[in-house]
Amino acid sequence: MDDYSNSQRAEVLTQALPYIRQYNGKIVVVKYGGNAMVSEQLRQQVMEDIVLLWLVGVKVVLVHGGGPEISDMMNRLGKEPVFVDGLRVTDQETVDIVQMVLAGKINKTLVKLLEVKGGKAMGISGMDGNLIEAKMKRAELGFVGSITNVNIAPVMDLLEKGYIPVISTLGCDAAGNTYNINGDTAAAYIAGALGAERLIMMTDIAGVLRDKNDPSTLIPELSIAEAIRLFEENVIAGGMIPKVECCIDAIHRGVERVIIMDGRVPHSILMEILTDEGAGTMVYGEETELCQN
Q: How far is 285 from 247, CA to CA, in rounded Å?
């Protein structure tokens, strides 16, 4: 904001006041991944957005993946990543790598960044406090988990103590097995268990597009009924199918609204929460009165 005068800065803050008031004390879950995680500049901006929201009283929960970094580590260790239907085949050696990268390197790096930006963060995995209970999804996928239960108490404890919880998407079962959990699915379950006001799912495209090759065909608002129709018309296809399905699942679990957000846009989280502009596609339930913020 170096190009802004003091009066212009004050005006920006004043315009944000109604949104700050609306979200004060409310829970917002951010599913962080994609280009916003790979780009160092965007990573810094995402952390700044989260800390700013935290400072004005929003209870932010950060759920992160780390697929590219897992694949990179596997390659460095001489193990070729294998995918079936978009899911990483996860044998015992791979799940150990996933745990090392997600719960270790990525999680602690994000906690450190949030602290450097002025936040108060605590990193946990889905295994801590049995936060995410899981079972094997399909035998041929190995230790890829399907969520059976979410014990949200550890996250609530951190929120009540003023922390920004940073959650890596691992799960466990009663036998002590560790499972690799899809990040979008984990975020939907966690947001639902928290009764979050918003779930923001960061991705590498503008949002849901009528024409996947034309960003100008962005659909800014989408009801569940409309989403189902777009599934049938094959407008929502490919990798967008499971993402929109996770949005619908989150709403059925009690989340007010879900945003599929373009993580490539600088400060897109602040645009969504503190302005009436938004950044991406907002999915909402039929009974929800539609209002962008």
A: 10
**What pTM value is reported for the model?**
0.90
Asked: is 23-284 a CATH 3.40.1160.10 domain? The reply is yes
* Separation of alpha carbons 269 and 261, rounded Å: 8
Q: What is the pLDDT of residues 209-234, one digit of tens each?
A: 988 888 888 999 999 999 999 999 98
**Could you write out the DSSP letters of every residue in the chain?**
-TTS-HHHHHHHHHHHHHHHHHHTT-EEEEEE-THHHH-HHHHHHHHHHHHHHHHTT-EEEEEE--HHHHHHHHHHTT----EETTEE-B-HHHHHHHHIIIIIIIHHHHHHHHHHTT--EEEEETTGGG-EEEEES-GGGBSBEEEEEE--HHHHHHHHTT-EEEEE-EEE-TT--EEE--HHHHHHHHHHHHT-SEEEEEESSSSSBSSTT-GGGB--EEEHHHHHHHHHTTSS-TTHHHHHHHHHHHHHTT-SEEEEEETTSTTHHHHHHHSSS--EEEEE-TTSPP---
Output the six-digit token pair for 129. 């406090």
**Residues 19, 20, 22, 25: is their CA dihedral positive or negative?**
positive
